[in-house]
Amino acid sequence: MGRQRELxxxxxxxxxGIPTAHIWGANDNLYPTFGPGLSKLCRSDLRDVFIHDGGxxxxxxxxxxxxxxxxQIINRAIERATALQYM
Length: 87
Description:
By secondary structure, the chain is α+β, with helices and mostly antiparallel strands. It has one domain. About 40% of the residues lie in helices and about 15% in strands. A two-stranded parallel sheet has the order 1-2. Strand 1, helix 2 (about 35-40) and strand 2 (about 45-50) form a beta-alpha-beta unit.
């Protein structure tokens, strides 16, 4: 059987080569390193990051600007993926 190990930017670089959208809270006390760690594994030219003022939750009606920004980067990832599909 193969060996399992955790991916890391230092050892693996940016192995995820698809368009991605990364959204996390600046005050995430549950998993504070997960967002930044995963983001670094994705190609920098194909990723977008939005860090909202909340914690470990999806932005909601209390912060409409955060919802709009999250939707914008999700749409950008979809547009990039669609464009790459036809290249």
